[in-house]
Amino acid sequence: MEDMILMQNVWKAYPNGVMALNGVDLSVKQGEFVYVVGQSGAGKSTFIKMIFRELKPTKGKIFINHKNIATLKDRQVPYFRRKIGVVFQDFRLLPKMTVYENVAFALEVIEEHPRLIKKRVMEVLDLVGLKHKMRSFPDQLSGGEQQRVSIARSICNRPPVLIADEPTGNLDPETSWQIMDVFTRINDQGTTIVMATHNREIVNKLKHRVIALEGGMIVRDEEEGDYGYEA
Ligand SMILES: Nc1ncnc2c1ncn2[C@@H]1O[C@H](COP(=O)(O)OP(=O)(O)OP(=O)(O)O)[C@@H](O)[C@H]1O
């Protein structure tokens, strides 16, 4: 299988001198599902932000789908981001837009054909089980439903890679499992998923590759690994 994400000797120093990543080497193949675990401050968010070019490495190369994004010009970043879906802990929906409009907006900004937009929005809302809520506004939805809208929005452009930073961080256990069902369906369609998480139960029950970070270094990388830290 092809490398979807390839990191070569990636370092990140923040302006205050903190070294958040210390020489990370990693290959993630097309279609893999990877959990990123580690204690608070280990570098998970920094690692995740590197993949969608929210941050630039201080040193090293990051290839997404064979393109080195470390050397992208700022003006090329929006185009690159079309290839990456991103989901956050806090959903980040637009409050004055309906569910349908929140998802459609992501396709409108990239000037997708209107007829295709409608078809695709209905497809992804169906995938996340929220077609019946398409006219609702975010504040009329539960947290889990809002997160499913945010996931629908992140994948409506069919990105090959989906990145999630603590997607179940604000959700109760049962709702978290609904989110994982959606991720499983998306992964089954061939999308590569990288998910930073503190959710021990999910990592231990829904087995996938586990990468553990400590002090900005990969200290463990296991197929079907465990969460591995004390509660
Ligand atoms: N903008 C920033 N400026 C300076 N230092 C930062 C910045 N963001 C993070 N750091 C530092 O970099 C290190 C890694 O932080 P990071 O947020 O990547 O960890 P994390 O594993 O995601 O933690 P958490 O689980 O608490 O979210 C920490 O020491 C943190 O204090």
TrEMBL record:
Give its localization: Cell membrane
Picking any one GO molecular function of the record gives: ATP binding
Query: In this record, what's one Pfam family?
Result: ABC_tran
Domain of life of the organism encoding this protein: Bacteria
Does this entry carry the keyword Nucleotide-binding?
yes
* Segments forming domain ABC transporter: 5-231
Keywords for this protein: ATP-binding, Cell cycle, Cell division, Cell membrane, Membrane, Nucleotide-binding
Q: What is its main location?
A: membrane
Choose any GO biological process term that the UniProt entry carries and state it. Answer: cell division
Q: Which family does it belong to?
A: Belongs to the ABC transporter superfamily.
Function description: Part of the ABC transporter FtsEX involved in cellular division.
Q: Which protein is depicted? A: Cell division ATP-binding protein FtsE
**Corresponding gene?**
ftsE
